[in-house]
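hey can u check if this looks right to u? its 228 residues, i copy pasted from the old doc so theres a chance i mangled smth
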Amino acid sequence: MNSKALHKLSYGLYIVTSMKDNAFNGQVANSVIQISSDPASLVVSINKKNLTNEFIKSSKRLAVSVLSQEVPLSLIGRFGFKSGRDIDKFAGVNYMLTGGGLPYIAEFSLAYLEAAVIDEMEASTHDLFLCELTGAEVLNEGIPMTYAYYQQMKRGSAPQNAASFAPDAKERRNKMDRYVCSACGYVYDPEVGDPENDIPPNTSFEDLPDDWTCPVCGVGKDEFEKED
């Protein structure tokens, strides 16, 4: 069996949030699936080890922020590569509350969905939460973030409609080495730079400031290795 066939499936990229004892937590997820329209219902897959899983099981409620393509890598890194057991993920983040009191990402979200869990099923390393919608709002117009688009950004190969796209990148390719974050897999591409952190295109890895950190997970330059 060729597992790469699974890579051809299409996914969105979302932030799923919940609460427990008046505390909030959330995480990045790509498995949020609408399964019916009347009543409107979803299935959400969350790793059993994640704190968000614990919060959802406690409250039986969750909210989904539908991210736009404009979302910064740093926000995805905060909710995807940090643990709510170690930090308050919502500190410094622009968020608001649904009618039921659950947090959603107010900036860089196209919509939010609020739902109540009506059933659960174990699926190896994950739990599947069957949910019925209790609220939903459109927040902004734009293009939803997909997992494929995120991977392009993370790999340093910006799509043509991204602000960091360099039209002549192919001509300059391989003149400077690319470096890979050993923690999250982000690839620093000198051709693209790091626009979110004011690093312009054509900045070599060696010329990055000593205090520069991975725009996704926040580790330092010493955690990067030259790409093969």
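Residues 51-59 form the longest helix (9 residues).
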